[in-house]
Design brief:
Blueprint: E1 7-12, H1 16-27, E2 32-35, E3 51-52, H2 64-80, E4 85-93, H3 101-113, E5 124-127, E6 143-152, H4 154-167, E7 171-173, E8 176-184, E9 187-194, E10 200-210, H5 216-221, E11 232-243, E12 251-255, E13 261-267, E14 271-275, E15 279-280, H6 292-303, E16 317-326, E17 340-344, E18 352-357, H7 363-378, H8 401-411, H9 417-427, H10 431-435, E19 447-449, E20 452-453, H11 454-463, H12 469-476, H13 485-506
Parallel strand pairs: 1-2, 1-10, 2-7, 4-12, 10-18
Antiparallel strand pairs: 3-6, 4-6, 5-6, 8-9, 9-10, 11-14, 11-15, 11-16, 12-13, 13-14, 17-18, 19-20
Length: 507
C-alpha cells in the first residue's frame, strides 16, 4: 500500500495508549504512522498487575469517574478479546484493625452497581472457615468478600492492537526512535532513527500524538525542543513471581497495615504473581529494577496472609515498570491520580497532543477521547467503532474459550491439550494461521524449549514484530519462565540468523 506524502497522525510510543490510538484512528480513515523506540509493550504496558479492573482502592481517593469508566470497560474488553481477557474472582479477606467491614461492603456495592455489570457475577460474602479460599491462608480470617474483575495478558493486548492497526493500513515501526520533530508550515517533519542501522528517515504528519509513557517529557524536551518540562510523576511498581501458593482459580486482594494493598494471582498455570509496590522513581525508566526493599515488602505483606510464608529464595522472576502518572501534587505515590490527562499544545503551528497517565483498563476510552481532540484539530473522519470490534483472534463468544480449544484440537489432533490451550489463550482463532498445514509435531519445526516451536517463533517474527528472544519469551509468550539460559541463547541465535537471511533475501 502506497503511503501518503503527509500522514494525518504520527504516534510516538508503542505502548497500549499509542497502539490503541493508532488502531482507532486508522479504523476511522486517518492515515497513521507509529514509531516505538524499543519493542511493543516493552515499558509500562507489560509491567502491570495484568488486570482489567475498576480499581476498588481508587474509591478511597474519590476517583468515581475513573472507577465507573473502568468498570464499564471490563465487559467491553472481555467481549473484544476473550482469548487474552477473562473473568476472575477476587477474595478480599476481612482483617480486624484495617478497613472496617461496612466500608468494604459499601465499596463493593458501588463496584457492583455503578459500572453496568451484565455478565460478571456480583459480590458475595465467604465463610473462610469452610470455603476453600481459606485453606492457603493463616487461620486468622473468618470472613471475606468475593468480587469480580478481569485478567488480561497485557503485552499481548498491546500487540493485538498494533496488529489490527497494521491490518487496517497503519505503519507500525519498532526499534525506531524519534530523534527530531520540526514544524514545516502546516505539518511536522519527524526524524525517525532505525536503531538497527542508525539510518534516519524523515516522516511528515499533520499532527503528533505523544504517547511515550514514562518518556513523554523526554520527547518534549528532546526531540521537540521544549524547555522546563515537568508533567508526569514517575511511580515504580514491582512484582514477584513464585511457584504457585494455591490451587484455587480465584485471586486474593490483601490489605496491608500501611494502608496499601497487594494482589496474589494465579499466573501461567504453575505460578503465583504477587504485587504491586508504589514508590516514586528517579532515573532512566528503561533501567528500572526491583529493589531489595520492595522484595522484602512483598514477601512480608504476602506472608501476613499465607499460612506458608513467601520467602526470597522462592522467587523465580521479578519485573518492574514505571507508571507515568499525571503530577497532581499528591503527597504519596499511591495517592497520585490514575486518571489520564490529554493536553493539546497551544503553540502556533501544526498540533501536538500529549498523553499523561492512564491505565490499560481505560485505554480504549482514552483512544476515543483522543480522537475527539484530533477531530477538533484536523477534522473529523469516521465514527467511533472499537466498542464492538474484536481484536485479532478474538472473534468468538466471551464464554466460548473451551469450544475454541476443542476446535483447534479437532483440526490438529497431534497437539498436546496443554499446548492447544496455550495457543488459543495467545492467538485465539488465529492459532490456525500459525499452525498452517502442519499435520504432525515434526511439521512445527525446531523445538526451542518447553512447547515453543519454530512455527510459532516465525509467526511472531513475521506477524507480531518480534526481533529478539526476549520479545518472544517475555512479551509475546511467557515461556521465559520455563526456559533455561542455554535454551534462550539458542533461540536468540536462531532469530538473528532468520532475520539476517530475511534481510539478504529482501535485497
Amino acid at each position: 500500500m502506497a503511503q501518503p506524502a503527509i500522514h494525518d497522525i504520527f504516534v510516538i510510543g508503542g505502548g497500549i495508549n499509542g497502539c490503541g490510538i493508532a488502531r482507532d484512528a486508522v479504523g476511522r480513515g486517518y492515515s497513521v504512522y507509529l514509531a516505538e523506540m524499543n519493542d511493543l509493550a516493552s515499558g509500562t504496558s507489560s509491567g502491570s498487575t495484568k488486570l482489567i479492573h475498576g480499581g476498588l482502592r481508587y474509591l478511597e481517593y474519590y476517583e468515581f469517574r475513573l472507577v465507573r469508566e473502568s468498570l464499564m470497560e471490563r465487559e467491553v474488553l472481555w467481549r473484544n478479546a476473550p482469548h487474552i481477557i477473562w473473568p476472575m474472582r477476587f477474595v478480599l479477606p476481612y482483617a480486624e484493625g484495617l478497613r472496617p467491614a461496612w466500608l468494604l461492603r459499601l465499596g463493593l456495592f458501588l463496584y457492583d452497581y455503578i459500572g453496568g455489570r451484565k455478565l460478571l457475577p456480583a459480590t458475595k460474602t465467604l465463610n473462610m472457615k469452610t470455603d476453600p479460599a481459606g485453606k492457603p491462608l493463616r487461620p486468622l480470617f473468618s470472613k471475606a468478600f468475593e468480587y469480580s474483575d478481569c485478567w488480561v495478558n497485557d503485552a499481548r493486548f498491546v500487540v493485538l492492537n498494533a496488529r489490527d492497526a497494521a491490518d487496517r493500513g497503519a505503519v507500525i515501526r519498532t526499534r525506531a526512535k524519534v530523534v527530531s520533530a520540526r514544524k514545516a508550515g502546516d505539518h511536522w517533519v519527524i526524524g525517525v532513527e532505525d536503531r538497527q542501522t542508525g539510518e534516519v528517515e524523515e516522516v511528515s504528519a499533520r499532527l503528533i500524538v505523544n504517547a511515550a509513557g514514562p518518556w513523554v517529557d523526554h520527547v518534549l524536551s528532546g526531540a521537540i525542543g521544549q524547555n522546563d518540562v515537568h508533567n508526569v510523576r514517575l511511580v515504580q511498581g514491582s512484582h514477584i513471581v513464585v511457584p504457585k501458593k494455591f490451587d484455587d482459580p480465584r485471586a486474593y486482594f490483601f490489605q496491608n497495615k500501611d494502608g496499601r494493598i497487594i494482589f496474589a494471582i494465579p499466573y501461567e498455570d504453575d505460578f503465583t504473581l504477587i504485587g504491586t509496590t508504589d514508590q516514586d522513581y528517579q532515573g532512566d525508566p528503561a533501567r528500572v529494577t526491583i529493589s531489595d526493599a520492595e522484595i522484602g515488602y512483598l514477601c512480608d505483606a504476602a506472608s501476613e496472609y499465607f499460612a506458608k510464608p513467601v520467602r526470597r529464595e522462592d522467587i523465580v522472576w521479578t519485573y518492574s515498570a514505571v507508571r507515568p502518572l499525571y503530577d497532581d501534587g499528591a503527597s504519596k505515590a499511591q495517592e497520585a491520580t490514575r486518571d489520564y490527562v490529554l493536553k493539546a499544545d497551544e503553540r502556533a503551528g501544526p498540533p501536538l497532543v500529549n498523553i499523561f497517565g492512564g491505565k490499560i483498563t481505560t485505554s480504549r476510552r482514552l483512544a476515543e477521547h483522543m480522537l475527539e481532540k484530533i477531530e477538533a484539530l484536523i477534522g473529523a473522519k469516521g465514527k467511533p467503532w472499537t466498542a464492538k470490534a474484536s481484536l485479532p483472534g478474538g472473534d468468538f463468544a466471551p464464554t466460548g474459550f473451551e469450544a475454541q480449544v476443542s476446535r483447534l484440537k479437532s483440526a490438529y489432533p497431534f497437539l498436546d491439550l496443554k499446548l492447544a490451550r496455550r495457543l488459543i489463550r495467545l492467538y485465539g482463532t488465529r492459532a490456525e494461521r500459525l499452525l498452517g498445514l502442519a499435520r504432525s509435531e515434526a511439521d512445527l519445526g525446531r523445538r526451542f524449549g518447553p512447547d515453543l516451536y519454530e512455527a510459532e517463533v516465525r509467526y511472531l517474527m513475521t506477524q507480531e514484530w518480534a526481533m529478539t528472544a526476549d520479545d518472544v519469551l517475555w512479551r509475546r509468550t511467557k515461556r521465559g519462565l520455563k526456559f533455561s539460559r542455554e535454551e534462550a541463547a539458542a533461540l536468540q541465535e536462531f532469530m538473528l540468523g532468520a532475520r539476517d537471511s530475511h534481510s539478504a533475501a529482501a535485497e
